[in-house]
Amino acid sequence: MGEGETVPDPPYGLISKLLRRGDVIPFLGAGANQGNRPGGAPWAGAADPFLPTGGELSHLLAAEVSFPADDEHDLSDLPKVASYFVDAAARRRLRDDLREVFDRDRDPCDIHTYLADLQTPLLIVTTNYDDLTERAFAKANRPYDLVVHPTDNKDLAASVFWWRSDATEPEAVKPNLLQIDLKTTTVIYKMHGSVNRALAAWDSYVVTEEDYVDFLARMMGKAAVPALFLSHFRERSFLFLGYGLRDWNLRLVLKTLRTVDDTLKAVDDDELVSWAIQLRPSQLETALWGARKVKLYDVEINAFVRRLRDAVS
């Protein structure tokens, strides 16, 4: 594997082929949801037809509770602002605000539609709260199972919520007891929770600093990510879409995954290669991806999807 430096062209043909074989795990971050945003358009609020970045959502919450900081780094730190919001207004008010933002009929982006068009069962991992991936699969008439980490239900926090295809309610299952045939079933795994458009009681968000600490502790105790998924990770490459490694929580998730299962551990020259697609990464982020032995490409996500489609034709 290379040293993580930004290089001009991703291996579109290889990534496309491996996705169609089910040999890649897509990881969708907040940047993957920006494909529908007009160039340079600011996010004006919950009614916008496109989703906010983490920083924009953080600014919205900070303004509501008069977050006591003027520093841009602090104002854009969503876990820090969310923790202050809970202290100032209560957890349920935070849930209400997040639901107002994410309980909207928005169109899936090109990347969601592309993944839904693939006819191979996939395990798709996302740390996003929205339902764009689910909407894309529903529009393509592709069945899927949904697995969500239920942070907001403390009685079930050591479980995952599992919605079988077409189920109206989830089953609470211990992560290491989850049984899904990944050879025949597409799974959307929402590692940090999700809005539930049908019923607010099923909403769950890993969003505050305390939530992340708890989630990572459960990961270290092998009580967060289902063992079935960890086993599936071991033989596949990762494709990180729309992530920035300035986010400490993502860095810790990757580090903890490696510690728990050696999934991302560098082994030898035969190690499976992973890729990250990120528009205009900073020097710091380039170095951080490189330290994790992930090939980084500076490509706009819609352009990346077009090239993946072209690779097939």
Describe the SSE topology:
Blueprint: H1 12-21, E1 24-28, H2 54-64, H3 72-75, H4 78-89, H5 91-102, H6 110-117, E2 123-126, H7 132-139, E3 145-148, E4 160-163, E5 171-173, E6 187-190, E7 193-194, E8 204-205, H8 209-220, H9 227-234, E9 237-241, H10 248-261, E10 274-277, H11 283-291, E11 294-297, H12 301-312
Parallel strand pairs: 1-2, 1-9, 2-6, 3-6, 9-10, 10-11
Antiparallel strand pairs: 3-4, 4-5, 7-8
Number of strands: 11
Radius of gyration: 19 Å
Mean pLDDT figure: 90
Question: What summary fits the major beta sheet?
Answer: 9 strands, mixed
Written overview of the protein:
It is a single chain. This protein has 313 residues and is α/β, with parallel strands linked by helices. The chain folds into two domains: 12-36 and 108-312, Rossmann fold (3-Layer(aba) Sandwich), CATH 3.40.50; 54-102, no CATH class. The mean pLDDT is 90. It has helices spanning 12-21, 54-64, 72-75, 78-89, 91-102, 110-117, 132-139, 209-220, 227-234, 248-261, 283-291, 301-312, and strands at residues 24-28, 123-126, 145-148, 160-163, 171-173, 187-190, 193-194, 204-205, 237-241, 274-277, 294-297. It is globular, with a radius of gyration of 19 Å. The longest helix is centred in the last third of the chain and has 14 residues, at 248-261. The strands form two sheets. Strands 5-4-3-6-2-1-9-10-11 form a nine-stranded mixed β-sheet. The protein has a two-stranded antiparallel sheet with strand order 7-8.
